[in-house]
Prior knowledge:
single chain, 65% helix
Amino acid sequence: MKRKAAEKTQSDSEDEQSPETHKKSLEKLKKIDPDFYNFLEENDENLLNFDVDSEEDASDQDVDDEEAIHTPAPLTGDSDESDFEDGDTKQIKGKVTLKMISQWQSELQTEGKVKLATLTTVIKAFNAAMLRVTSEDGNSSGSSVFNAIIQMCVLYLPAAIKNYLGLETSGKDPQKCKHFVKIKGPLLAYLNDLLKLLSGVTSENIVTVLLKHLHQMSVYMACFGRVSKQSLKKLITLWSTGEETVRVLAFLCILRITRNQQATLLDLVLKAMYMTYVKNCKFVSPMTWPGINFMRRSLIEMFALDINVSYQHVFLYIRQLAIHLRNAIVVQKIENRQAVYNWQFVNSLHLWTDLLSATTNKSQMQPLVYPLVMVITNTIRLVPTHQYYPLRFHCVELLISLSKETNTFIPILPFLVEVLTSYDFNKKHKKISMKPIDFSCILRLAKSQLMENGFKDAVIERLYALLLEYTANESHIISFPDITLLAVIQLKQFLKACSVINYTKKMRQLLDKIEENSKFIEKERSKISFSLNDDKMITAWECNIRAKGTPLSTFYENWSKINKIQKRKKITKNDELAGELPMIKRPKISENDLSKVKPVNKGPLVLFPSDSEEEEEEVENNFKVDDKEEVSVKPNIKLNSRMDNDIIENKDDIVQDFSVSDW
């Protein structure tokens, strides 16, 4: 009974809500409360014009909406801007075929003006391919179409965009072109997809092609700030961790993008590249040296773009190094010393030394020479023990380079002669090393290495080379006999105290050359008639002596040529010996003899165990750009030791126009 009553009440309420009942109640409301009726008439006109036909219209509208939901939409690429909608834009309906791609390719290569519809259609096809590649089943038709679309865009799209904008002859800013507004939206979408593709590719060959393409498209990056930061974030990672060719191409892209937006991006790029450089020079070995040298040289070129901006960065970073050094001197704890005596600190000093040496013609940077010299010299004095002789030699090399390039006198001889007087080279070694110790990739020696015979040999070799280089560099100055006087006295004391013939022979030869050069300068100095207070005349006299040549400089040039040849031979000697090793003839063993031998498992044989068990850490980038769709990439680090230092100077050859064969 209750259920029937409830159903009756519900039916009554539905009758009350019919259109006729609703209209009567509104007429009744007009009589009872005319003010409220007028309010409804002004603010809710649909309520008063309620009609029976409206229910049928509503039902028809629901049917239309339901049909629209289940109707498949045409295949189109998405965009970040509303500029993508254009009256002439083609819609990509159905599947993209190779025949369609061939037609678009011929339209992109037309001799006349490229149509906007063709460009937007190609970019939409590229976008659709990027969206569907992750869900592709891997069939041959899908992969071939995807590859054809990418190849078409990489090879023919840059020239077609230039053609459409009219940049082939004018060479002006793309944003100032008449038709740039129409292509802006599709272009932004294409650049975003290109960065996603670059992030997802691991093949070095494909990354090389994409970087060449990005270098061509980098002129349009300046039109979009966010895309520029995204691209720089990825490029800096490739610049620091990629293969040799990838590194160079990534740097050229960074350089071009930064130049196009130098006012807004240079500050961020310098900071991010320096931090990446410091993180990637933590471990030094013969395999990583070429990559570190390339990063340093390319960083110098970036800092040279704007000296005024660079001065602020260099001043700040040298000051940070000085603060670390001061803490190590004051606190005298192991962790504070380790913050200074590591490869990151030394490579930072190397970077600023090379930068100040390369910008000697820029007066803004020269005030930083003195604080840098003070940091380097106090780094040597921090722990002046035998174990840190390699670090001392690295710092002395930096001081010699800085003195030579900036034409600044730096008292370097005491740091070298001190080694001869503080260590007893007559001490007999307790171990015999099979190979000489190379100081180029180490900062600190182990206690066991100090007992080897190779330690003393390597120290004498480095002292001889550094003393000869520094004295040859200063051999033309008028005060040469005076600045070398103390070093000559200490060299003579070493020759009296040392009984090792090989060591005394080299040092005696060096002493003879220094004394010969001192006599030459004194003889030339006796001929002058001007006052020693006349700086201009002294400078002119020294330039004349340098042009004429000194005995020490001539000897150093000849020695340097021979030393370079010997180093090259030493590098290639292992490879030559590998093909000339004598074969040991052993008697043949029969199968019966082999059956009697019991196998002994002693584990894998290691001939040359690695000296270092540490591995490089991954580098995090400093550009903070929200890019949730970015694919993480871990490229293989394959640094070739043949990376040439002159690779930056020949950068125009590596980004020349490429053809279908490159793909």
